[in-house]
Amino acid sequence: MIRAHFDHPHPVDRVGEGVRVLLLTCAGTPGRDALIARLCATGAEVETAEELYSVLGDLMDDSSDYGLFVMECDAFGGVDAGRRAAALLGQLKRPLPVILLTADRAEQHFPDDWRDPAILHQPVSSVALRVGMEQLLHRRFDWDRPAM
Q1: Rounded Cα–Cα distance for residues 137 and 93 (Å)
Q2: How far apart are CA 98 and CA 83, in angstroms?
Q3: From what superkingdom does this record's organism come (predicted)?
C-alpha cells in the first residue's frame, strides 16, 4: 500500500481560491451560467464583462485587481481575436494569465509558460478548466518550499 501525505498551506483542490477572474462573455451565450459555476467551483471570484475594448482598456490601465482573464472568443471575433487580446495583456507591466474558449477548435492547448494563453474547447469541462487554471496559476503556489 502506498500512502502519501501532503502538508501544504494552500488548498490544492480549489486551484482558483481567492483569484479574481474577469470573464468576457455575452449575455445569453449558451453555457454561460455553467461556465460561471465551474469557475466559481474552483474558488475563484468571477466578474463578467460584455465589451471587449472596454475590458482591454481597463486592464491596460490597471490589471492588478485580477489574477486571470477568461474570454469566450466565438462572440468576439474568434480565437485570433482572443490571441490578439492575450498578446496585448502580455505586454502589461503586470501580465495577466489568459484562458481562451472556443468551439471552433477540437484540440486544446495547455501552455508550458503562464504568459501564453490556454486555449480550451467550448463547452469547457470542469477538468479542462482546472488543468488550464493549474498551468497558468501554478506560480501562485510555492511548491518547491522545503518541508518544515
Answers
A1: 18
A2: 9
A3: Bacteria
